[in-house]
């Protein structure tokens, strides 16, 4: 099983993929241009990891209109795509990173 996280933006999206052991599958994040050609190239990249769409769970934040085309494209190609609540993903990130931790000296 592979877990695909997509950070949605206006012109391009940034993708990170991990496996069931939380190991990154790609060394660098994947940049997906927000157009049909970019979406097709992204699917080609996923197919190099596994040709079975059921091997992927894809999550993207519901951040307005910018992710709608990608969501529909991936769904139409048989991928399991979940819309994520941005508030919940922010809270999860805050709880699992040290970015906002203050230290006293």
What does the secondary structure layout of this molecule look like, with pairings?
Layout: E1 2-7, E2 12-19, E3 30-33, H1 36-49, E4 56-61, H2 68-76, E5 80-84, H3 86-96
Parallel strand pairs: 1-4, 4-5
Antiparallel strand pairs: 1-2, 2-3
Pfam families: DEDD_Tnp_IS110
GO molecular function: DNA binding; transposase activity
Organism: Aliarcobacter cryaerophilus
Outline of this structure?
Helices cover 32% and strands 28% of the residues. With 105 residues, the protein is an alpha/beta fold.
Give a verbal description of the structure:
InterPro entries: Transp_IS110-like_N, Transpos_IS110. This is Transposase. GO terms for molecular function: DNA binding; transposase activity. It comes from Aliarcobacter cryaerophilus. The chain has 105 residues and is an alpha/beta fold. It has one domain (2-96): eRF1 domain 2 (Nucleotidyltransferase, domain 5). It has three helices and five strands. A five-stranded mixed beta sheet has the order 3-2-1-4-5. It is globular, with a radius of gyration of 15 Å. The model has no long low-confidence stretch (mean pLDDT 88).
Average pLDDT rating: 88
Give the radius of gyration.
15 Å
Helix content: 25-40%
Instruction: List low-pLDDT spans.
Output: none
The tally of strands reads: 5
CATH topology: Nucleotidyltransferase, domain 5
CATH-assigned homologous superfamily: eRF1 domain 2
CATH architecture name: 2-Layer Sandwich
The major sheet is characterized as: 5 strands, mixed
SSE string, helices as H and strands as E: EEEHEHEH
How many distinct folded domains?
1
Q: Assembly state here?
A: single chain
Overall spatial form: globular
């Amino acid at each position: 099983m592979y877990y695909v996280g997509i950070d949605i933006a206006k012109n391009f999206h940034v993708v990170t993929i991990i496996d069931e052991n939380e190991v990154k599958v790609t060394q660098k994040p994947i940049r997906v241009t927000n157009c049909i050609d970019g979406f097709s190239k992204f699917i080609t990249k996923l197919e190099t990891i596994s040709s079975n769409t059921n091997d992927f769970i894809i999550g993207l934040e519901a951040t307005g209109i910018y992710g709608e085309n990608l969501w529909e494209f991936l769904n139409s190609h048989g991928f399991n795509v979940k819309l994520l609540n941005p508030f919940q993903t922010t809270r999860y990130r805050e709880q699992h990173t040290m970015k906002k931790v203050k230290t006293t000296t």
